[in-house]
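Consider this one:
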Amino acid sequence: MITDHQAKYFAYELTRRFPSDSEARLAQSAEGRGPREALRDYVDFYLSPEHRDDPGHGCTMGALGSEIARADESARAAFAEGFDGYLETFRALSGVEREEALARYATMVGALVIARATAGEPISDEVLSAARNALLD
């Protein structure tokens, strides 16, 4: 179990790093590509074994997202604001409405969290593959 102090630190890190790290990767995926190709590139990266196996340099949402609930209201509000901006970027890249973008991103994060929790077991790769197929078909 983490302490309140640790939870606040994790929330701070999540609100500080999440939007910029993720938006930078989204922008990189979109360079010189159409929306469908950019989305495929981003989903392929996000749901890859390499991303799963490197939580220290990957998506902070997948690594620390559950810790934000333990943070104070100001940290949660800052996170919500940053996430909303990221979601708009993801929505625009995906070419879908907000609700669909939320569902897609929630699927990606959930799959990454489960894959990290089961890393080293065959089901971990199955989770990544199933989510990738569901999102890109």
